[in-house]
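<purpose> Linking amino acid order to shape
<body> The protein record starts here
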Amino acid sequence: MDIRLDEGFLFGMGVFETIAVEQGRPLLLEQHLNRMQGSADFLKLGSCAERGLTKEKIAEYLSTQEMSVKMHGALKIVMSAENTFFQMRENPYMDEIYSRGFMTDLSKVRRNETSPLVYHKTLNYGDCILEKRVAAAAGINEKIFINTKGQISEGTVCNVFFVRKNMIYTPQLSCGLLPGILREYIMERFQVTETIIYPDELMYYEECFVTNSLMGVMPVRQLGNICFPHRAKADEVREVYEKEKMSL
C-alpha cells in the first residue's frame, strides 16, 4: 500500500467509513458513501466517486477477498487529499456478545460539542481509540462521552439510545455526536425522541442500547452504576434490523 504524506496522514484531515459486510454484501452502502461525501466536502477533499470510492470499485475489491472474511466482515474505506484505500477484516461482534449485553461506563474525557470535527467521521479519532483502550483495560465493552455541558453525547464507537415507558430517546446531534448510519436507520423506522440527557437522569430509564454499523443493535446491561434490567425494546429494534439488513 502506497501512502503519501498528506494532511490526512500528518494531521488526521481525512475521512473514513466502516461498513458491515454480510455474506459478501456491504450493508447500507449508499448511506455510507453519502455520509463520506458530506465529510469529504467539509474537509475539501473532492469527489469520492472521482477518486474511485464507488459501489462498482467496492464490489471489485470485495471480489478479491476471501469468502471466509466476507461472510461476517468489516470493510473500511479511507480518503484523504492524496490517498484512497480499502481494508477488510473480520467483524468482531458475535451472537454471544448480544446475549450478554454490553457493560459500559462514562468517560472522563469530555466530548467537545463546539468542534465541527465531532460531527464527521474523520481520521481525527484519537480520543475514541484511547478511551476504547481504557474500556478494554477496565474489562468493559465501551465508554460513553459526556460533552462540555455535562450532557450524554455518544460512545467511543457508537450512538446511544435509552428507553422509558416503551419510548426511545437519544441525544440531540447538538450534544456533539456523529450522526450514525444505524442511528438514522432506527429513527426512520421507530418513533425516537432526540433530547438532552444528563447522567443523573439515567436512573429514570428502563433500557439502554448502543448502535453502530458493525454491531447493529447492542443491548446495554449497565452504564456506570446504573443497571438496565430490561431489553425488550432493544430486542425489538434488533429483530427488525436483522430481518431487513440483507435488503439494505
User: Anything to note?
Assistant: The first strand starts at residue 15 and ends at 22. The two ends are 31 Å apart (CA to CA). The CA atoms of residues 115 and 176 lie 8 Å apart. The chain has a mean pLDDT of 97.
